[in-house]
Structure formats: structure tokens, C-alpha cells
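Late entry, evening session. Most of the bench is empty. Finally got around to the prediction I had been postponing all week. Sequence below, unchanged from the version circulated by S.P.
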Amino acid sequence: MKKSIIYTFLLLISIFFTACEDYLDKKESAVLTSDQVFKDPTNFQKFVDDIYTYYHYWPGDWACQSFGGLGRIAYSSFEGASDLAEASRAVAGTNASFNLGNWSPSAFGAQVELTWPWGGSYAAIRRCNVVLEKADSVPGLGTGKINGYKAEALFARAFFHFELIKRYGGVPYLTNSLKETDNMDLPREPYDTCVAKIVKDLDAALPNLPKFSLQATTDLGRPTINAALALKAKVLLYAASPLNTEPYDINFGSRDSSLYYFEKPNTPAEIQQKWIDAANAAYEVIKLEDQGECALLDSAHYQNVFYQTNIADVKNKETLFCRIDGSFTFSGGKALMGWVGFSDVSASKGYGGSAGTYPTQNLIDMYEMADGSIPITGHNADGTPIINPASGYSEQNMWKNRDPRLKLTILCNQDQWQDRPVQLWYFKDNPTISGSEMKDAQDYTTTGYLCKKTWPEDLRQGSIATAYMNWMWFRYTDVILWYAEAMDQAFGPNVDGLGNGRTASWALNRIRNRMNPKRPNMRNLVTNDKNYFLERLMNERAIEFVYEEQRWWDVIRYKKGADVFNKPVYGVKTYSPTTNPTASTSFEITRRKIENRVFYDYMHKYPIPYGEIEKSLKLKQNPGW
């Protein structure tokens, strides 16, 4: 098998698709014997490469796998669980479960997030442990190869333990491959203990991971020093966040609280130190920019972070770790996600009659004006906006003169796409007549918007164009905003607490001004208010990382789910005075409620899968479940 992650991903899927369970858990006659794997360097490399299938999907059905795995729920992006997006009416795991508070593993698609991460992560972790235990004894491997395989396994072991603790809290941290005769009745370890072990694994991997600049294009998708330092920074940032440092109290009523899992809250001094540790870890990545190992892509190449149409351009200094989709053309699987890889006739229906996940008006309202002024300062009880008149914002021109990222991320009515205007309108005098992308029917866009962020415009049904997709785990923009957050929480917006000349404001304003290179300070946020700075920072993260599935976790780790996700989401109806509108047509835009969302406090941590709780007397459930 080739070394390349890009070119061998589909081959890996075909070879190991039935190995969603562990490779060595199969009968020897079904795949390979242990001797064939661990006494042959080529087969051992295949065994190591199979770890990467777990980055791409959890062991489950195609509804998760075909969309890239981790965080995709039955035809919809996990972004639809947040306030930034809404899934289609007909087939939507987030719409049918998370949005309605119906968090049952039996709800359509919900098991992708509630159950599969547990089994899938531990399957991946076991494979990592086998690699670490067997690498030294494989004949024909040099020291460099052995150390490289071990570094990949250590990184992956850290990665998958983090995927567990960010969902469930503290978990059993496994550093050896368990056998049938081993004790399986393992208690949950404290969150901070898991964090310390993740950091230890990453520190052990670092000396044997390659620099980004020296990594071959055929190895893209494997971890580098950049990736390990970024993961370390993210782990420490989450460890400092309120969900993992403050009390997590649930009203139990008559239930036996001894059956449930609690973490010890941190003192204010401990919390500040955690923020300092997170800032220091993020700064270790920032120092790599000074060495030429990472960078922010400029405004002209912003979209190239997410996709490229030429293999030579796949490698870029902003991407720190991602899954790279090998060369692909238009396909139903991609179109189902609610992106705009659609036919010219039925855009919002995706492909094959099933739609995906669409931007909400809630998201649109978060975008500032081009000059950095805030157009909407809040909302009334009925969802109508509280408009800042000084911003120049108008409801009937709500998409104009906004942050440039709005039109790089979202398609609005009449935007040009694939050689034609997008038709997201209803006829004013007879709303049963509508544009080709807008109908009151299942599988069409529910919000009046489409997503364009992660789809090349020349990739369309019937075309011969190809593309390479970066499914992001973290990019350099992430790190800069982690640094801004940690510095603000530890010291405030403008205090040089680490003595490196780089404050929280320095970091945030780099991102705020990236899209305005000719006026580099136009959108500077100037404030000494720590809490206001955090509010604007989280707004920045929401619009910067939309459709990268980070909003849910940013809200959850601040224990704000009941404040943010327990509210309605909105879209728009756009009315045309004619059945054949043109560029000069004057449209009427009205807001409409799409759905009342439900979120309860105990949902900030996922339930340990019930089947796992039933197997163990020591494994305690999270409060409220």
C-alpha cells in the first residue's frame, strides 16, 4: 500500500471497510494472521495506516461514513445542532434529535454523536496501543521508521482520547491493548488526569514528527509538529474552560447520586493557571510562524484553505491538521450536505432528492458591517432585530456592506453561482410559485440560504472538474483565536502577560482585519472589558468557523447551551413582485421562525452509552442522564 494518505484513502476504505472492528479481532482466516501482520513491514504499515480510517468515520452505517465521519449525522452536518444552521425537513439527524432535545441513541442519526464516538475511539486507541507494543519487534524496520510509527500512534491515541473527553468528560485512559483476560471493569479517570496523559503522549510524539515544511505532499493528512502542538493547545484550552473547571450541578430529585460522575471544581488560581498554560501552548504554535512553518492565507486565497482544484495547491501553511479528500468530482454524497454542488435545475435539493444543512438568519445577524460596526445588538422576544442605526444596516438590504466572509460563506437570493443567479424567492401574489431553489417542501432549503464555503464553483453535476477537500480538524486561525481567548481570560485584552509583546487584542485583531488588507486596522476591536472582548471573540469564532463544526463545542464548553441553543432559529422569505425577476428587481425580505430549539443543562455532557454502563460497576454515568 502506498504511503500517501491522499491517494490511498479510498483503497484503505475498500480494504478495511469491514475492519471497523479491530483488525486483529477478526478470525485469522478472514484477513491476516498476527504473524503476517507483525513479521512483515509492508503489512505492518497497512496496520498503522488503518488508524486513519477512524479519523474519517466511526464504525457505523453509511449515513456517517459517506460524509467524512466525526460529526456528520444522517444527511446533515453537525453544524445543524447549533444555532448557525438548520437541517432539511425530510432527513436530518440533528433536526430530529439534537434540535428537539430528543437525545436518544435510538433517534435517527443521534447515535453518530452519542454512541459511536465511544466505541470508535476505543477501537482506534486499541490499534494505537498495538502499534506501540509491536513496532520494535517488526523485522526490517529501521529506527527512524519505528519511531515515526510510534509518533503517529501516540498522536492518534491523544487525539481520540480528546474526542472522548470533550464529549463525555473523564474516561478510562488506555495505554495498553486489553486482552480478554484483562480486567475490563475500569473506572473513569478525572478530566485533568486525562488531559495530563494526552499532553504526555503529545510531548512524547513531538521529537519524531516531521516539520510541516519537510512533509511530502504524499504524506499530507499525517500529523506534523504543527498538528501535535495545535492539539496540545486545544486540549489545554478546553481544560481551562468553565465546563471543565466549574461545578456541574444537576437536580437529581430522588435518584441515587452515587451512581453519577462528578468532577472536583477548580479554585480561581487554578483556573487562571490553566488559561496561562493554554496561552503558552498556543504561543508555541505561533512561534512556528516566525520560523516559516505556518501562516495565515491572505484574503485573496481565503477559500483555498478548504478546497483546491490542483493537487499542487493542496498543501498550505494555514492547515495544521485535516483529513484530505482525494480527487473527487461532483457526487450525490457531497451534494446531500447542503453545499452547492448541485445541478443547475434543483440546487437546494442536493442530489437524489435529499437536502442537507442550511445557514440560519441567526448566523447572518452575527456578521458585522464591513467597517467592523455591529449592525444588530440583540433581538426582541419575537425574534425581530434590535438595529444599531449608526451602522447603516437596513433589513431590506441586510446582505450588503457586511463582513466579506458572509458572501464567501453563504449564498443569498440572486447571488451569482455557476453562471446564473440563485433563485431563493417566492412570488409575492402567489407564494406557491417560487424560484428553483426555494419551495415550501421537504428537501428544499428551510432557511432561504445555501452554503457555498466548502464547495468549488466549477464542481457541478455533469462537469469533469475535480477538487481536493480539506476537512478541518484545526487550522492556524484557530490557534490565534485560542491564544486571544486564553490571554483575555488570564490577563485581560491588553496585558502582555507572557512578556512576548503579543496580547489578546493583537491576536483577535489579526483575524478581524485579515479580509481588509488595504485598511489593516479598520476593524480593530478596542476595549479593556474582558467580558465584552470574550463576547466579540466568540462571535468571531462563530462566523470564521461556520461549517467547520466548532460552534457547538465553543458554546458547550462555556456552559451556555441553555442560553444559546434553547431558543428559536430563524430564516427568511424573500418575495418577488414578478415570476421572472432580474438583477434590477426589488425584492421584499421578511424574517420567519424555522424551529423552536430545546436544550437542558445536563446536555452539556453526553451520556456514557447505556450498554457500557450496564457492563461495569465502576463506570459512572454523567449527571442528568
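Two things to note before I forget:
The CA atoms of residues 367 and 521 lie 18 Å apart.
The chain is about 35% helix and 10% strand.
Will write this up properly tomorrow.
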